[in-house]
Specification:
The complex is a heterodimer of chains A (195) and B (599).
Chain A: H1 2-22, H2 25-47, E1 59-65, E2 76-79, H3 80-85, E3 88-95, E4 98-108, H4 109-115, E5 122-127, E6 132-136, E7 146-151, E8 154-155, E9 165-167, H5 179-184, E10 189-194
Parallel strand pairs in A: 1-10
Antiparallel strand pairs in A: 1-2, 3-4, 4-7, 5-6, 5-10, 7-8, 7-9
Chain B: H1 3-37, H2 41-65, H3 69-91, H4 105-121, H5 133-227, H6 229-260, H7 267-298, E1 305-309, H8 310-328, E2 331-334, E3 340-344, H9 345-361, E4 367-375, E5 378-385, H10 419-430, E6 433-439, E7 443-451, H11 468-472, E8 478-482, H12 486-498, E9 502-506, H13 509-519, E10 525-529, H14 538-549, E11 555-559, H15 564-572, E12 577-579, H16 584-596
Parallel strand pairs in B: 2-4, 8-9, 8-10, 10-11, 11-12
Antiparallel strand pairs in B: 1-3, 4-5, 5-7, 6-7
Helix pairs in contact in B: 1-5, 2-3, 2-5, 3-4, 4-5, 6-7, 6-12, 7-10, 7-15, 8-9, 9-10, 13-14
The chains are: A alpha+beta (195), B alpha/beta (599).
């Protein structure tokens, strides 16, 4: 069996080379790209079949745009219980907006996006105060950026820049303390449009 | 200003430049940070507060315009949220976020106004409270007014920011310019310092070399000073100059006296001549002593070691000094030992002669004893006297030149005081150990340790006795005499004519050549003075004449020089050398010896 494999492998490579030679490079690349798109498209179609549970309490966050799992038309609506049902992460850090160290608790962006079956390249985050910021190039897989729903052990009121806010682990990752990231840390978060 | 300070200026400048550059780098970094931080975030904040006031006013208006309780209730929730959002943006955000705005009086006024506004209407912002339309309008109006203030502050900030940004940019440019200028200065100063350092180290090396040289010179000078070399050299120079001038007339005198002998007929005249001759001899001896010293110092004395019979040498010394000893009523005891030594005959004999002569001089009564015995494979020669003795503290000094014991009036009949200094030099030259032991009023004993010699049958008696027969050989010889001194030429002429020689005298090389050409004559012998006119020397003249007659005519050089350098030079010419003043017999001996040689 093993001998056969050893015999087969070179001949396969040989065949592939032959094919490569028969078609020019562009054609091959086009073919590959097409097949990739087809596979992804099929997966996406399969995913739309999943629907999220309906929120029971007051809706705090609306996620729209390119996402697989929804519960309200093309959007995913979340109440506090739904967010709390997802794995929670803590961030202990200083922030540019408040004195002293703050303890935030919330759901990781990566977890949330996985939950709604999305892999956005950019996120347009909007707040209660109509503030909007387009977050790009954010490596949410590496950095535990969260949507916080608790600060220092209690829910966050609107007057305390809640009830939801995007928070970065600035102290653990000092490189995150950039103008773009501080602008990305939208407080009183109500909506996210994933692109 | 001190050179050292001048040299350190570029170094200091380089250091200063480096310090300034460091300072500039810190400044540039700080400014860059400032530029980075003085960003757009404040604008966003201002804009957001403006919007929040505006939105509150709008939501209040919406509430008034709404028709129906249900709709109004919904709108009430709207303005309460807006109020909360505004509240959060004023109260829950750290004021430092405002940056430069904090320093602005109008901004602080606005913040306090906003806070007053918020606390003023706080009680009304609840779902339980229904506010009448007039109050709503009042709140809305105030919110809009505050929104206008925020907007103005935003404009002002924008204006300030533009200035500040420009200022910072300008400062940045200035800092960069300064940095480049000082950077260039630093490089220049460093290069200059490096060059100076190289120069200085080179100069230091030169200086230390100079210092070493000076030190060695000083050491030499000190050595000379302590050993007496310096004084001796000075004396040598003086003596060389003096004795050369003395020598010329003395030489002539000797020649004249030799020539006069046959012309004096009376016995009284002969006695006077004899005395004159002796005086000249004494004078010669004195000068010869000086010459010996000069020669020893010049290092031109050749040492020819041979096996010597001590008995023969002692006998010659006895014969030499016996007359004087007898005259002084002193006993001269010479003990035969049958021992042989290995040394230079003439020089060793000179040492012994000087010691005996010295002993005679310092012994009033008693005896002088010369003995030899074998000691540890060496031969010990002892010259002992019963004289005045030498005090311990003067035993070193007696070997110095011109040093004489008990002769403060410097009686020259007792010699010059050179005898022992010659002994010291000769024993040094011959590698003979010289010791002295003396007891005042008991006598002095000089001891010499000489290498043992082998018995040699061929040792011949070398007593140089004047042999008149020998001198008869001179007859018929034709001799050319070149000397620039008139007296010397005449003296030579008289002496040689007497011995029936054919003599031609010349005062210079050119004159000699002329005469030879004129007479078509070839001399059998040339006698030339070493120092001739026009910087010419005797050997030049001899070579020239030999060329002229095309024959290697035997030749000798007579020199009156005593300076070591001149003596070396004359000796280097390779011709037999006689020293002025030359005693007639010695000259005749030399002529016979030379003319007899096959050429």
């Amino acid at each position: 069996m093993a001998e056969n494999m050893e015999c087969c492998l070179p001949s396969l490579a040989h065949k592939f080379l032959k094919i490569s030679r028969r078609y020019d490079k562009q054609t091959v690349v086009y073919f590959l790209r097409m097949s990739c798109t087809l596979v992804l498209g099929l997966t996406a179609v399969a995913a739309t079949a999943d629907t999220l549970p309906e929120p029971e309490g007051k809706v705090l966050l609306i996620i729209s745009g390119e996402l697989g799992n929804t519960n309200h038309d093309d959007e995913a609506h979340f109440d506090k219980a739904m967010l709390e049902s997802l794995p929670s992460v803590q961030i202990v850090t200083k922030t540019p907006w408040a004195d002293g160290i703050q303890n935030f608790e919330g759901v990781r962006l990566s977890d949330l996006f996985e939950y709604v079956d999305a892999a956005p390249e950019s996120i347009i985050a909007g707040g209660l105060d109509d503030y909007k910021f387009t977050i790009t190039d954010l490596d949410y897989q590496t950095y535990p950026v969260i949507i916080a729903y608790q600060q220092n052990g209690s829910p966050i009121s609107v007057r305390k820049l809640g009830p939801l806010r995007i928070m970065f682990p600035f102290d653990d990752y000092p490189e995150l303390l950039t103008a773009k990231n501080t602008s990305s840390a939208v407080w009183q978060l109500v909506e996210m449009d994933l692109q | 200003m001190n050179r050292k300070w001048l040299a350190s200026i570029p170094g200091l400048a380089a250091l200063l430049c480096a310090a300034i550059m460091l300072y500039l780098i810190v400044q540039i970094d700080q400014t860059r940070r400032e530029l980075q931080q003085d960003g757009v975030l404040e604008f966003n904040f201002i804009q957001q507060i403006d919007h929040n006031f505006d939105a509150l006013a709008q939501s209040l208006n919406d509430y008034i315009n709404a028709v129906g309780d249900e709709k109004r209730e919904k709108m009430r929730g709207g303005y309460i949220v807006r109020y909360d959002v505004l509240y959060a943006s004023i109260n829950s955000v750290n004021q430092k976020w405002l940056g430069r705005l904090n320093e602005l009086e109008s901004a602080q006024l606005l913040i306090s106004d906003a806070k007053a506004f918020l606390s003023n209407y706080e009680p009304l912002m609840s779902t339980d409270v229904t506010i009448d339309d007039a109050t709503i309008q009042q709140i809305s109006y105030q919110a809009r007014k505050l929104s206008g203030d925020v907007y103005n502050i935003g404009l002002y900030l924008f204006q300030q920011k533009s200035y500040i940004r420009d200022n910072i940019s300008k400062r940045m440019d200035d800092l960069y310019d300064a940095f480049w200028i000082f950077g260039a200065s630093f490089v220049l100063a460093s290069l200059l310092t490096l060059m100076l350092l190289v120069t200085v180290s080179k100069r230091a090396a030169n200086l230390s070399a100079d210092a070493r040289q000076t030190q060695s010179q000083l050491t030499t000078a000190l050595d000379e000073l302590t050993s007496g070399d310096m004084a001796r050299q000075a004396q040598n120079r003086f003596m060389a100059a003096a004795s050369h001038d003395l020598r010329q007339p003395l030489h002539a005198l000797g020649l004249y006296l030799s020539a006069l002998k046959s012309h004096v007929n009376t016995e009284h005249g002969l006695t006077i001549l004899e005395n004159t001759y002796r005086s000249t001899e004494a004078l010669n001896q004195l000068l010869n002593s000086m010459l010996d010293l000069s020669k020893l110092d010049a290092g031109v004395v050749e040492v020819n070691h041979a096996n010597l019979s001590l008995d023969n040498m002692f006998e010659r010394i006895r014969q030499t000094f016996l007359p004087e000893a007898k005259q002084r009523d002193l006993k001269l005891i010479v003990e035969n030992s049958a021992l042989w030594v290995y040394s230079d005959r003439a020089l060793l004999e000179r040492v012994l002669s000087n010691l005996v002569s010295n002993a005679l001089n310092y012994t009033e009564a008693g005896s002088i004893t010369i003995t030899a015995n074998s000691l540890n494979h060496q031969v010990q020669l002892i010259v002992a006297d019963t004289g005045t003795g030498i005090p311990d503290d003067e035993q070193e000094a007696i070997f110095n030149e011109y040093y004489q014991l008990h002769n403060p009036e410097r009686d020259r009949t007792k010699g010059l005081g050179l005898g022992l200094s010659i002994v010291k030099r000769l024993t040094h030259l011959l590698d003979i150990e010289l010791n002295i032991s003396s007891e005042p009023h008991e006598g002095t004993q000089f001891t010499l340790l000489v290498a043992v010699g082998k018995k040699n049958a061929e040792e011949v008696n070398t007593n140089r006795l004047i042999n008149d027969k020998k001198h008869q050989k001179l007859a018929g010889l034709s001799i050319l005499v070149i000397d620039d001194e008139h007296d010397v030429r005449d003296g030579m002429h008289s002496l040689l004519i007497q011995h029936k020689c054919q003599v031609v005298v010349a005062d210079s090389m050119e004159n000699a050549c002329e005469q030879i050409i004129e007479k078509e004559w070839v001399p059998d012998l040339i006698i030339a003075d070493y120092r001739l006119r026009d910087e010419k020397t005797g050997d030049n003249a001899i070579e020239r004449i030999r060329e002229e007659v095309n024959e290697d005519v035997p030749a000798m050089i007579i020199t009156g020089d005593t300076s070591p350098a001149r003596l070396r030079e004359a000796a280097a010419s390779g011709f037999p050398l006689l020293h002025k003043p030359v005693i007639g017999d010695v000259l005749l001996d030399a002529i016979v010896e030379l003319a007899g040689e096959p050429t």
